[in-house]
Write the structure tokens for this entry.
Amino acid sequence: MAPPDSQNSSSDFWVNTNFSDGRNPTIFLSLHHANSSEILWSTSFSFSKKDDLELESYRLTIHLWRQIELASARLYKQDASLEPKWWYLTSYHRIKTEARTKESWLEAKEALHALAQEKEPSIYVSFILATIHYKALLERWCPLSEYESRIRELAAYAMRFNAGSQYSMFIIALANILAGDNNHSISYLKKITDINPLCVRTRNLLAQLYMLQGKEDLGLEEVSFFEKMNIDLVDQPYNCATKAILLFLTKRFNECIQFCSEILFIMPETVIPRITMISVLGWEHRSEEAKKHVELFKKHHPNFKLDQLGNVIQGIHYEKMDIVLQGLSLANMKI
């Protein structure tokens, strides 16, 4: 199994499927690889007439794809000679950069840049490169003008040689965001959801763009997709963060607090969920709890300055930024 838009793909993976009939019919799946005798992953799914089989098939498809990515990264770590490089090397670095650290980005960009310079590079490599560069820009790990230019170059290549690919459309959407053209970005991202309605990454970015436009309800519609899928990818802190902010902006404060708590339990150093938590506690007049979170924020970010706050909340519609700032003021947060 390989990305549907991949070039010259050959499959090293296969899935064994067995079916048990009876009162509760059950499907048994196991994932295998040509270079490994072990079962890389297995699961079973029992269903009844009352189940939404279409939804369950969606969940299983996304979960299977996720397990193939994880297995590819694991196998490459064990044997760096695995071919094709565009898949195994890229999968390894894609999974590694989920940690969202500058070190993982620096390592990935060096490794993938060489692949992207090949005579006929895979569009999947360009897609992952553009995605990690966009993350680096959001985190302020790199010069803005230089990496905006790199993403535009990747978008130009994608548009010229593989414009119909969902990966190309995603790269072009990123380039449009950086150019300030969010409407065209949304248009490209919606085309991707037409091609591949199960793409969590696309829906997460759509939710962020809707939030930037002040269309929180549309953003929540996209994020609700994550909950329906109920997979490990959904629970990653940065997917949860999008919903936490949307819940805050729509004044669903109790749900927002719950989401922020879950994120901060996993990654207590993350800035956006902590800022959101402090602001919502300010609005709720829960001063003692807010004070604890302010102290934790300062512990993890002792050098954070007031002028950096604009970068943190830049994904929020400008007319709604005051809601965050007022909450911080109510929480007596001083930076």
